[in-house]
Design a protein that fits this description.
about 0% strand, single chain, about 140 residues
């Protein structure tokens, strides 16, 4: 066999090894990208679930207090302390989600949370507690 044949065989072997390495790198990169995308999606799902729980706690406060006011009944101090504490924690979680912004949530969700944090533009009389409660509940 001539030297040229050996060189051709060596070049073919190197090309084969290079293609195997490139294929392996591509597969790894694709798997890593998919893993990263799935992990990112999980983080987004967790952020949305936390926001929904926080908003639910806040709505529970408004609903409980509003219903008691409408029905003319008093909320027990224990229940009031519980729903107030849940409202405060929920408010902090919503504030945190709003501050994170579009990092984990959509721009539309970010805008909605910012509008929620700012509150209604037409504030009622501060002495009208029930009006404030009704406005915040909406």
């Amino acid at each position: 066999m001539a030297t040229a044949d050996y060189i051709a065989i060596a070049a073919a072997c190197l090309a084969f090894v290079a293609s195997v390495v490139a294929t392996a790198a591509s597969l790894y990169s694709t798997r890593f990208a998919r893993f990263a995308w799935e992990r990112w999606w999980e983080l987004q799902a967790q952020a949305y679930a936390e926001m929904i729980r926080a908003l639910s706690d806040m709505v529970d406060y408004y609903s409980s207090v509003s219903d008691a006011e409408i029905e003319g009944r008093r909320i027990s101090p224990e229940r009031m302390a519980e729903i107030t504490q849940r409202w405060q924690k929920g408010h902090r979680r919503v504030t945190r989600a709003t501050n994170m912004g579009a990092f984990l949530i959509s721009p539309d969700a970010e805008d909605a949370l910012q509008a929620f944090q700012r509150g209604p533009a037409d504030r009622r009389d501060p002495d009208d507690w029930f009006g404030q409660l009704d406005q915040d509940y909406r």
